[in-house]
Amino acid sequence: MEHNWFFPPHDGVRLEDLAMRLGAELSDQGAAAKVVRNVSPVYRAKDGDLCYLLSRKGKAELETCQATAILCDAALASLVPAHITVLLTPRAHMAFALAGEILQPAAMRPAFVTSEASGVSPMAYVDPTARLEPDVVVEPMAVIGANVEIGEGTRIGPGVVIGAGVRIGRDCTISAGARIQCALIGNRVILHPGACIGQDGFGYGPSPKGGMIKIVQVGRVIIQDDVEIGANTTIDRGTMDDTVIGEGTKIDNQVQIGHNVRVGRHCGIVSKVGIAGSTTVGDGVMIGGAAGLNGHIKIGDGVQIAAMSGVVADIPAGERYGGIPARPMRDFLRDVAEMTARTNNRKKTGDKE
């Protein structure tokens, strides 16, 4: 890949210092003064790069690897060529994520779009009743409504619209084109471009004349600390209760979360997931891409839901589910194996006939 001017290399971190910060063990103390400046995949890593190895499946990629250092478990260290220094750690994936934060801090949250890196742009509109703590940045064309409160160190990108009465905590990043209303947002929250928070939930009652009558949505959205919400994701406000996204949860792009949904702490929700209204999702739940969850159900703590699953009923804590309708993973895989076998048998029978 050609030089990336969007994310230039770090000035350099010594391997000895990096190992200490990551809690890793430097395999060769003679390499302590070597410097890494960037992260890279194994197959195209060059001098100055750091990469990581998770399994023996990556052995072939090491043939073209010229990295300065590689993070891996001690069981994989023998696979690494002699010219590459090994940083030993049983949690290489986590250590690589932490190293990325050290070497590419600017990539940890969306950057400023304009060159204005302080204060309120004269091309933004801030209602006179809004209260902004020191060191809040508001870029051009943003609109901040009446009685909004925004905490110190928060960045408001261009074209953002923040509705009346919204509260946003400290050190948040609200990216270009995001829309927020009827919401209370904690500290260190990241909203990526186009995220929409606090709009009407989908609620209608039958009309005696046919058609549907709108049910008012008068709840809020509460987003706790350290949540990250992807581009073009939508989170509806509650009907009368609140929609809640728990601390540390990470939500991908193009996710839809309905009214009154409660998502627990430290969940991972991948792109295209849809969660219907009044569903409760426990702590530490992982939901694969394009899965759909029915309304008014409960997903227990630590549940894992496979991509493209259709969840129609409660799932007990700690279970792994997949398929349509979603069922325990062992049952889903058995059903897939049986269907595959029947299909193959039909093909064989057809060939003979």
UniProtKB/TrEMBL annotation:
<dbReference type="Pfam" id="PF04613">
    <property type="entry name" value="LpxD"/>
</dbReference>
<dbReference type="GO" id="GO:0016020">
    <property type="term" value="C:membrane"/>
</dbReference>
<keyword id="KW-0012">Acyltransferase</keyword>
<dbReference type="InterPro" id="IPR001451">
    <property type="entry name" value="Hexapep"/>
</dbReference>
<keyword id="KW-0441">Lipid A biosynthesis</keyword>
<feature type="domain" description="UDP-3-O-[3-hydroxymyristoyl] glucosamine N-acyltransferase non-repeat region">
    <location>
        <begin position="35"/>
        <end position="100"/>
    </location>
</feature>
<keyword id="KW-0444">Lipid biosynthesis</keyword>
<keyword id="KW-0677">Repeat</keyword>
<keyword id="KW-0443">Lipid metabolism</keyword>
<dbReference type="GO" id="GO:0103118">
    <property type="term" value="F:UDP-3-O-[(3R)-3-hydroxyacyl]-glucosamine N-acyltransferase activity"/>
</dbReference>
<dbReference type="GO" id="GO:0009245">
    <property type="term" value="P:lipid A biosynthetic process"/>
</dbReference>
<comment type="similarity">
    <text>Belongs to the transferase hexapeptide repeat family. LpxD subfamily.</text>
</comment>
<protein>
    <recommendedName>
        <fullName>UDP-3-O-acylglucosamine N-acyltransferase</fullName>
        <ecNumber>2.3.1.191</ecNumber>
    </recommendedName>
</protein>
<dbReference type="Pfam" id="PF00132">
    <property type="entry name" value="Hexapep"/>
</dbReference>
<dbReference type="InterPro" id="IPR020573">
    <property type="entry name" value="UDP_GlcNAc_AcTrfase_non-rep"/>
</dbReference>
<dbReference type="GO" id="GO:0016410">
    <property type="term" value="F:N-acyltransferase activity"/>
</dbReference>
<dbReference type="InterPro" id="IPR018357">
    <property type="entry name" value="Hexapep_transf_CS"/>
</dbReference>
<keyword id="KW-0808">Transferase</keyword>
<comment type="subunit">
    <text>Homotrimer.</text>
</comment>
<comment type="pathway">
    <text>Bacterial outer membrane biogenesis; LPS lipid A biosynthesis.</text>
</comment>
<dbReference type="InterPro" id="IPR007691">
    <property type="entry name" value="LpxD"/>
</dbReference>
<feature type="active site" description="Proton acceptor">
    <location>
        <position position="259"/>
    </location>
</feature>
<comment type="function">
    <text>Catalyzes the N-acylation of UDP-3-O-acylglucosamine using 3-hydroxyacyl-ACP as the acyl donor. Is involved in the biosynthesis of lipid A, a phosphorylated glycolipid that anchors the lipopolysaccharide to the outer membrane of the cell.</text>
</comment>
<dbReference type="InterPro" id="IPR011004">
    <property type="entry name" value="Trimer_LpxA-like_sf"/>
</dbReference>
